[in-house]
Design goal:
273 residues, alpha/beta, Metallo-beta-lactamase, Chain A, six-stranded mixed sheet
Length: 273
């Protein structure tokens, strides 16, 4: 079975640049913000929509502008859904939630990192695989504080305001990391449970070379949980994967890449030590 052309026609044919959004699938718009992707989920032109993740610090104006162009002025999302609370996924969440006056949902285990109560563990600056782990010590670990806007995701696995999606607990990279899955077309918003670029390599981050990779090494403290999470997502046989870092992948190349990652997880994903 080859890659599905109905999906591949939505994929960008060249490297994705920060600030240049594209339709990953109908009703799913990917907006790269520096080193990370945010996703605007919903039909365009005035419809209800949800923002998944909130990008880098001080990117709120870019996301607001992009949302206005897609959905119209004064059409806020119904909510912001966070896959987890690392700095590159919550960088503008406080400002966006206040600007749009909307709730923010995350897994219950992430709440301490989103209410100012707890810091994430220090990064593994010796994780290897490229130059970025050695720079990770400079990345922010301070929690954001969303106050009363923050709400736990429903325990039944439903995703607020996205009736045909469900969330799955995919820890390892973060205690309360979640991924979102839509059964009808097997679309997967994977967050950082796995990514489609080798995030440790500065060169590959710039070129956005597609490659199924484990979660970013320097910020992943629990590798056994990370392996189980990749296994759970692979068992869904996703047709399209949209990740926190890297470009969209689909079809057999996606599923073969996940199988190869699992078969070689210790060598391919985990730090040498």
């Amino acid at each position: 079975m080859t890659d599905n052309p109905l999906h591949d026609k939505h994929l960008p044919l060249t490297s994705v640049s920060s600030g240049k959004g594209y339709e990953a699938l109908p009703e799913i718009y990917c907006y790269p913000v520096q080193i990370v992707n945010v996703y605007l989920v919903g039909a365009s032109a005035g419809s209800d929509w949800v923002l998944v993740d909130a990008g880098m610090p001080r990117c709120e104006d870019d996301i607001i502008r992009e949302a206005a162009e897609r959905f119209g002025q004064d059409v806020p999302p119904r909510a912001i859904i966070l896959t987890h609370g690392h700095f590159d996924h919550v960088g503008a969440v406080v400002e966006l939630a206040e600007h749009w006056d909307v709730p923010v949902y995350a897994h219950a285990l992430e709440l301490p990192y989103l209410t100012g109560q707890a810091h994430y563990p220090p990064p593994d600056t010796h994780a290897g695989g490229g130059i970025i782990p050695s720079l990770a010590g400079f990345f922010p670990r301070e929690p954001v504080d969303l106050g009363e806007r923050l709400r736990p995701l429903p325990e039944d696995g439903s995703v607020p305001f996205l009736g045909d999606w469900r969330w799955l607990h995919t820890p390892g990279h973060a205690p309360g990391h979640v991924s979102l899955f839509r059964d009808r077309d097997r679309a997967l918003l994977a967050g950082d449970a796995f990514v489609t670029v080798r995030q440790e390599s500065l060169y590959q981050v710039f070129t956005q070379h597609r490659e199924i990779s484990g979660p970013p090494r320097y910020f992943t403290p629990d590798w056994e949980a990370a392996r189980r999470s990749v296994q759970a997502l692979a068992e869904l046989t996703p047709e399209v994967a949209m990740t926190g870092h890297g470009r969209v992948m689909s079809g057999e190349s996606l599923r073969n890449g996940l199988r190869h990652l699992l078969d070689n997880f210790e060598e391919q994903a985990m730090p040498d030590h």
